[in-house]
Fold:
Amino acid sequence: MTQPNADDGGPDGLASPAPGAGEAFDPFEEPSPAAKASRVSRRTSLAIVAAAAVVAIGLTGGIAWIAVSKDKGRDPSMPTLVLAAPISDESLDSLASSHSGMKFAVGPGDGKVQLTNMKGDQQNRVLTGHTDAVLSVAFSPDEATLATASLDKTVRLWDTETGESTATLGPFDDEAWSVAYSPDGTTLAITVADGTVRLWDTATSQYSDDLGGHDYGALSLAYSPDGALLATGAGDGTIRFYDTATYEVVASLDGHINSVFGLAFSPDGTRLASASFDETVRLWDVSSHENTLTLDGHGASVAAVAFSSDGKVLASASADETVKLWDPSTGRLIVTLEEHTDGATAVAFSDDGSALFSGSGDGTYRMWLLVGWDPGVENG
Structure:
C-alpha cells in the first residue's frame, strides 16, 4: 500500500482521499526511524507505571481517582491526565471500553490488538491475526465478543475471555474501516472502503444484508441508542440514515466537504455528531436532519467524536495533536487537551463518565480523569 505524504494537504496521521470513486486510501503515515526510536524509549520508561495504573483503576474505579484529585489539588477547569500508556511503535488507531468498564481494547497500526480484561486474573492479551492497521474495535453488548476492522480487508471476532479468534469475515473487496454492534447485539454492521455496508447476523453467523449505497468509501458508522437508526459516513462527505426495520435509506445529510471519519449519537438519540477531514465537527438534529452546529476549532482533520454518558460533553480527536471538549448544546469550546505528540486518532468516554480515553499516532493511549472536573469552569 502506498503511504500518503503528510505534506500533501493531509495532517499527520490522516491523508486526503484519493480522487477516484471507490479507490482505497490510507489515513496513516509511516513514522520516521527517529520517531520510532523515541516511542520505544517512552514505552520502556512508562511501561511499569502504565501497567500498575491500569490494574489500580480496574480494581478501585472512581474511588482511586477521587483520592488522586484530592491529594493533587486538581484544577477544576482541567481534566487530569492520569495515564499515558505506550502500546505500539506505530500509530494507535482505535480504542473502546466495554459497557461495564471491565474490558478495554486498543487497535494499533501493526494489527496486534491489545485486550485488557479486569476480571479475575486481570489478563492482558495480544490478539494476533490482522496483518495491517486496525481502524475500529467494538465490544458486543454482552461483552463476550470483540469485533475488529482492519486495512487488511477483514473483520475478526474474538472471544473476550480467552482471546481466541472465533471468526474471520472477509476478505472484502476493499479495506474494512469501521464496526458497530446494534444495541440488542443481533447485528454487526461493517463499513468497507468500496462504499458498501455489510450486515452480519450474530445469531446465524451469516450476512443478512449488503446495503451498498455510498458512492465513495463507507468509512464510519454508529447505531442510535434505541437501535432504530444506523448512521453511516462516507468519503464524499455524506451521511446516511438507515431505518433498521427495513435498512432503507431514510435521510441523506449534506454539509461536510470531505471524508466523514467518525460518528456518534448523543445518549438520548436526538443528535448526531460527525467528524471530518474538512477539519470540522458537525452536530445534526436526528428528527429534522438539520445541521444545528458546526465546530471549527481544530487546525487539521478530525478523526473521531464521542459523547459523554450524560450528553453534556462532546469530545473530538484531531490530527492537530489535540483532543477538544465541547458543550454540544451551545458549541462552546470547553477545553483543549494537548498532551499527545502526534495526531489524535481515537476518543472514548468511560460508560460511567469518570474518564476519557484518547489514542494517537504517537503510539500511546491516554486516560484523563473527569471526576472533580467542572465543564462549566473556564480554563485559563
User: Anything to note?
Assistant: The longest helix spans residues 33-60. The two ends are 44 Å apart (CA to CA). The helical segments are 33-60, 62-72.
